[in-house]
């Protein structure tokens, strides 16, 4: 390496710098007896590897056994994903008035339910929670015993 003409320090070439690709993160939620996550995969091979677990009606991946969930986690790890297993849904649960527009929240939610006054959403990750709050949603503070996300 040549020294930098101003500092006298060795000049680093772009090829000598390690650039680590940021790992993508997926949040898996325990919903009753299943584990579920929502993610759009740019790589069709990853989707194909998980396709048997995709619920087309709910637009999410669902795993009914620990074995199926763990197999999926291995696929995700090999594809360069990190994951978080979540059983406490509170940090991901938001509410919006039943009379508000909600289509944009639905797109980034794992599950939702309705009460006479509220639409309650389980958001797919922390960024989706922040987006929901920017759109007027509030963190849900009610009783979690009454919530049954499926």
**Helix and strand sequence:** EEHEEHEEHEEHE
Strand content: 25-35%
Task: Summarize model confidence as the mean pLDDT.
Answer: 88
End-to-end separation: 60 Å
Silhouette: globular
Q: Which class do the helix and strand fractions yield? A: alpha+beta
Instruction: Describe the main β-sheet briefly.
Output: 5 strands, mixed
Radius of gyration: 21 Å
What is the strand tally? 9
| Count of the domains | 2
Main β-sheet, spatial strand arrangement: 3-4-2-1-5
Low-confidence stretches: none
- In helices, the fraction of residues equals 10-25%
Number of helices: 4
Structure description:
The chain is of the alpha+beta class and 150 residues long. It has 2 domains: 24-86, no CATH class; 90-139. Helices cover 23% and strands 29% of the residues. It contains 4 helices and 9 strands; from the N terminus they run E-E-H-E-E-H-E-E-H-E-E-H-E. The chain has helices at residues 44-50, 66-78, 103-107, 126-134; strands at residues 24-31, 34-37, 54-55, 60-63, 81-86, 93-97, 109-114, 118-123, 138-139. The strands form 2 sheets. The protein has a 5-stranded mixed β-sheet, covered by helices on one side. A 4-stranded antiparallel β-sheet has the order 7-8-6-9. A hairpin with a 2-residue loop joins strand 1 (24-31) and strand 2 (34-37). The N and C termini lie far apart (60 Å). The model has no long low-confidence stretch (mean pLDDT 88).
